[in-house]
Amino acid sequence: MNHRFLSVVGLAAAMAFTGGCSVNKQTKATSAVEPVAVKPALEVAEPPVWAPKNHAFNPSRTRVHDLLHTKLRVSFDWDKQYVHGLAELTLKPYFYPQSQLVLDAKGFDIHSVELVVDNADPKELQYTYDGMKLTIDLGRSYTRNDKYTIEIDYTAKPNELAVGGSDAITQDKGLYFINPKGEETGKPRQIWTQGETEANSAWFPTIDSPNERMTQELYITVDQKYTTLSNGTFIYSRKNANGTKTDYWKMEQPHAPYLTMMAIGEYAVVKDKWRDLEVDYYVEPAYEKTAKKIFGNTPEMLEFFSKKLGVDYPWSKYSQVVVRDFVSGAMENTTVSVFMEDLQLNERELLDKNWDGIIAHELFHHWFGNYVTTESWANLPLNEAFANYSEYLWTEYKYGADEAALHHLDELGQYLDESETKREPLIRYRYADREDMFDSHSYAKGGRVLHMLRKYVGDEAFFASLNRYLTKNKFSDVEVAELRMAFEETTGEDLMWFFDQWFMRAGHPELKVNHTYQNGALKLEVWQQQDTLYQPVYKLPLKVAVWENGEKTEHAITITKANQVFSLPVSTEPQLVLFDSEQQLLGTVEHAKTTEELVFQFEQAKALAPRLKALEELGQNASQQKMVPLLQGALKDNFWAIRNLALDVADQLPDKHTETLEPIVKRMADSDKKGEVRAGAIMLLSEWGEDEYVDLYRTAMRDSSYKVAAAGILSYAMTEEADVNKRLAAFEKETNEEIVLALASYYAVKGGPEKYEWFMKQMKNAKGSGLYYLLQSYGAFMAVNPETYKPEAIAMLSGMAQNHPLYFVRMAAFQTLMVHSERPEIVELLKEIRANEQDKRLVELYNQVSL
Q1: Are strands 476-478 and 510-518 parallel, antiparallel or unpaired?
Q2: pLDDT, tens only, 12-28
Q3: Number of domains composing the chain
Q4: Are 680 and 644 in contact (CB under 8 A)?
Q5: Is 391 exposed, middle or buried (0-12, 13-18, 19+ CB in 10 A)?
Q6: Residues 6 or more apart whose Cβ sits within 8 Å of residue 566
Q7: Which domain holds residue 753?
Q8: 106 in helix, strand or coil?
Q9: Domain boundary residue among 550, 583, 616?
Q10: pLDDT digits (tens, 9 = 90+) for 39-63
Q11: How far is the CA of 574 from the CAs of 523, 555, 556, 597, in angstroms?
């Protein structure tokens, strides 16, 4: 599962309500000693806001029965959004004799439950049902040597269930009808499923737990115009007399019930291949020609990961399907990964972006998550940390060290942002809700911990250990101890210390580093400043690089104490001391350096992270005299992220330095090979604001890159040219998100009431994060143009605020309605929305709003 941007956007939306987040940091106070005999009582400090919460313990589910096989026959009532199902389940007691079976079955109508008897009529079984659990009297006691099969005739009503969810998976209805009545223009009719965490039991009865495994068969009956997709192998399609067809899919290798899936729609199926394995891409017909450009690296990924792990892709096929209104970024159902519609890109959009990261992430789950499955949601990082780290591995292999390092920094930043308000162990049995596990700890922190483990044991041992882990535990469920033992058995080293501090304990090291040179000796002092009431004193093996006379020497050190001093051999005063020279540490490092040292670091360190750090710090503290020559080089750097940051730093200078920097920026705006950099250069020129750039903005609006065209639109909109409105109006039929949001930013303030219909059309078509940001602009538009307060707009915003599947879009719509909170009818509407909202994140935020 890939949760992409959802938690980040949710945080941004939350900040829009609360005015930003503040973090309470524990502090110590000193005072003068009072001349009294009695010592003053110690004040008990409030725990930090991020302190781990003491929730109830959540063990793995007890195995009472073993679900061996599931055979499903399903058809659909599109109008009512019902699933008609006949489920045939084969089971046996796990160990102890059993005479009763309890199944997960959420929101069903149960029509009958029967025991299937060989060569005899089925036997009706007695049962009780509470709407969530189906309890069946088996009629006699079965031992662990006895198999039995039951048949359940049922109707599932997933759309009538109360909705839950998380940052990563915004709804948990299990099965979703998209545009079921065909009333939404431009949106296809689809049915798709999403089982993680325990939502598949909303459309078929099962033992909905990750430590269960089954083989399966699915018979899917639909109109003949639809294409179906499911796990495993397509066996046949049979036409029915009533004009429908029944497609038969068979999954012969066992997997967890949450990985069962279906997707139904009118798809173009683009064929590809890896070795002798079928690889297919299911996209809407409009994207048939670009499907291979979107997903075309999949065969190379299959080869790369198979060789890297020493375990060939273990399943019968690999398909990837794009669906509308998906409740997450993507999902790794066995043999079929499902993706959000954002992955569907046209030729022009592909110039600016690719989705290799999320594609690699879901593919890697087919080893870590599907082949070897976590036994409980408490152990979720055994799935998600590995999938997250696969993005780094693929980027490193395909696009090089700098791109991989940039990805690493982005993921580290996501975790550190979350750590301001939340710090939990990676493996955490104490959570309030299993959905809470889908956060930047399980993903971003987990991936960075694996990177540190790789650096510590070395590449050969790292991948040999993963091979041992996968081979030994294939088609089974595991906990973190089994990963540790695979590494210990491979390396011969007791790694309990590493797994304890990084997997079982909360937080991260917060280091302060100081170095001094005196009398031919380099003293390096390190303080661990993290609050050790909640976090450990870490053991940190890492490297320190020292440059003398232009020559680099690396020293291996191991930090084990809260305060530790290291003496490093040097022959002269160093030009630079680079702590954690491999930049592998998950944590924060405060290491003060002079301007000269930072300049040397930027120019001589080869790794991306210290170069970015040096440039950023110099931009904040160095004089213009130092910065201008440095920026002349940085703006021409070989790596685009350095050039991009250099543009930001140049923007902070009081003057544009016409003779030195401006010509370079102009060339970047004209011809930089990276669209994002060209766009940044254009925006910088617009900030500098000379009329001479007007022609450049006009040219940019015709650029092949949507990012550059959007920058041209924004920049031209800030000029005083008489034809601004006419030129911008030429883009109003464009559907690309970059262009739409650029226009919306301008129209929000200067569009006037005549842009009302344009905004309404865009909000009907926008999706996901694009809709979130569009709503921000529309709120400003309504504030500037109060005459656009119309029933149609209020009804649309109300519908979004109450019914949109993405919680952060509901939040943005609520926020936009607040523009008119002086109106009594809007106040009542907001109160109604708040009263009906069930998502705990929104309820907490809405309760902070005074209405």
Answers
A1: unpaired
A2: 333 333 333 322 333 33
A3: 2
A4: yes
A5: buried
A6: 523, 524, 525, 526, 544, 555, 557
A7: 747-851
A8: coil
A9: 583
A10: 444 556 789 999 999 999 999 999 9
A11: 11, 14, 17, 9
